[in-house]
Amino acid sequence: MKITTLAAAATLALAGLQGAQAATLDVVKKRDAVVCGTTTGFAGFSAPDAQGVWRGLDVDLCRAVAAAVLGDANKIKVVPLNSQQRFTALQSGEVDVLTRNTSVTQQRDTALGIIHAGINFYDGQGFMVPKKLGVNSAKDLDGATICMQTGTSNENTLADWARAHKITYKPVVIETFNEVVNAFAAGRCDVFTTDASGLASIRISKMEKPDDYVVLPEIISKEPLGPFVRQGDDAWLNIVSWTLAAMIEAEEYGLTTANVDEQLKSDNPNVRRILGVTPGAGKNMGLDEKWAYNIIKQVGNYGESFERNVGQGSPLKIKRGLNAQWADGGLMYALPIR
Ligand SMILES: N[C@@H](CCC(=O)N[C@@H](CS)C(=O)NCC(=O)O)C(=O)O
């Protein structure tokens, strides 16, 4: 009886808490800015440039949400979060959306009061080692000291993989990104493990001599990275996931920052719906009909954002691979805006 009462009280308290949290769209409109949780600085995905302006594939997604909701991609506030802090910041309402290399997993999507709003980068966990170690395969890592960051999915994935492959290793788990990078650069561990995108970024942007390091060929997991929002605010979930869909679908239809004004004259019914020439999509979400036009005009389509931040127009030079459009053999398949 007592336990039931306590459980009921807890449920009520939770419901009260959720009820007390105002609709995110209203909060964002009133504040006139979207608050996004990012990394503390992970080049290509979310990091400040030399002028202190936050840039990256994940920052572009944040900017796209601001363009869709407020008509201005610059109306963002960035809250830098390390891996450990990110979920609490979203749960507590400190950020409106987490746009930060976060792997979607069943546990995160169901047990933390948060939910993913699409995938903006299909990744997998890998390993980086100094060339001088002479290691060519992850299978040769038996006995290695392996650096990783606290609060990442990388910790458990590595443990599972090592057990399955009968590999023993010594974990060095460090809370902040720069410290774990410094530990690796200083040779306090033989190996750095995280998402392959993370390794590419660390190698180019953090290692003094990138050519002294090699990323091993093995990818040991699926790491589908995407934005997260709080559970229980479906209108906001819709806005974030359809913002991402609009970027991906804009690429599919060849809509770019440079040609979007010209495309307003297109007679393709899909293009007309995306750009709000045929109204409806914006109103359905409580947004201006120019929501997707503003995203494309101010931020660009998914491919433009990819190439500029992590692809051929960036130092990382990551290939599209799984992140190519479905028509090109990749997994980027936007749900249709109609
Ligand atoms: N995708 C993995 C790893 C993501 C992650 O947090 N990676 C670290 C290492 S690259 C990172 O981004 N750190 C940046 C920071 O803490 O500021 C996850 O969701 O757990």
Automatic annotation (TrEMBL):
Alphabetically sorted, this entry's keywords are:
Signal, Transport
Q: Name one GO biological process term.
A: amino acid transport
Q: Where is the Solute-binding protein family 3/N-terminal domain?
A: 33-263
Coiled-coil region(s): none
SMART domains noted in UniProt? PBPb
PROSITE patterns with a match to the protein in the record: SBP_BACTERIAL_3
Which ranges does the record mark as transmembrane?
Answer: none
Transport is among the record's keywords: yes
Family, per entry = Belongs to the bacterial solute-binding protein 3 family.
What is this protein's name?
Amino acid-binding periplasmic protein
Organism for this UniProt entry: Bordetella trematum
Gene that encodes the chain: peb1A_2
